[in-house]
Amino acid sequence: MKAEFDCDGILHPKAIEGLKLFNEGKFFEAHEELETAWRDETGEIRNLYQGILQVAVTYLHITRGNYEGAVKVYGRSLKWLKDWPDVCRGIFVKKFRDDAEAAMKELGTLGKENIGKFNKSHFKQIVWNEKRKWICDRCGSEMYEKNCKVSCPNCGNRFDCSDLNIYFD
Ligand SMILES: [Zn+2]
Fold it and tell me: What structural domains does the chain harbor?
């Protein structure tokens, strides 16, 4: 994984709200939360928020019967979404890209005249693992999580996600 993608961090809280709303089919509200996350965020990850935001707007256009709007905004989203690793900050980006592409293919098959027949089952949910910020219980440093292995860069303390229940009992 390339370091410049900064995929090991946690998601902005507003981005998490946006993902939840997206999965409830509340695309307008999802767009608003993601926009706040995009505005607050200074790192590269803001581009991923932007891409997801634009797919939310694309889907909103589809539900409102705006064919040209959907095609235009989806086209813009591609450049923000294309370069990310398959999973970034717990978001399954590749699946998200593939799902959006499939939805747009369906839209293209229907064509502008039949956009009203678009079946909303083509709006797939965004899959993500909500990452937590881990603080080492021995030395207080922020810990890193990768593939469910959590380790402390300071003292070497480590544990596995499968042991989580002992931390949250
Ligand atoms: Zn430590």
Answer: 3-122 (1.10.3450.10), 134-168 (no CATH)
